[in-house]
């Protein structure tokens, strides 16, 4: 989440359209980018301490982003919707399991 949060902030704020787009960014953007506001030295230490695992997860995220990109490029409406359904269900399972342990 830390890397994704930081990458999202960097990608969006470096865009020439950011001044206009930033007006549309709301609580979802704020929530997704919260981790990017942590102390840079702490973030560096997290990355260097967990280097191998973080690299492996970055590779997995790249694969998933590429899959979404291809679905969107192919205009595969049904498959795009199914990808979001699967993600929603996976998140709900995690929420339900997490609630059991609280």
Write the layout of secondary structure elements.
Layout: H1 2-13, H2 18-21, H3 27-32, H4 40-49, H5 51-73, H6 77-101
Keywords:
mainly alpha; globular; single chain; 102 residues; 78% helix; oxidoreductase
The level of helicity is over 70%
The rounded Rg comes to 16 Å
Q: Give me the secondary-structure category.
A: mainly alpha
What amount of the residues lies in strands?
Answer: under 5%
User: What is the terminal separation in angstroms?
Assistant: 21 Å
Total domains: 1
- Helix-strand pattern: HHHHHH
Query: Spans with pLDDT under 50 lasting ≥5 residues?
Result: none
The dominant shape is: globular
Largest sheet geometry: none
Mean pLDDT: 95
Number-wise, the strands total 0
**Helical segment tally?**
6
Descriptive account of the structure:
With 102 residues, the protein is mostly helical. It has one domain (2-74). Helix content is 78%, strand content 0%. It has 6 helices and no strands. The radius of gyration is 16 Å and the shape is globular. The mean pLDDT is 95. Pfam families: PDH_C. InterPro entries: 6-PGluconate_DH-like_C_sf (IPR008927), PDH_C (IPR046825), Preph/Arog_dehydrog (IPR050812), Prephen_DH (IPR003099). This is Prephenate/arogenate dehydrogenase domain-containing protein.
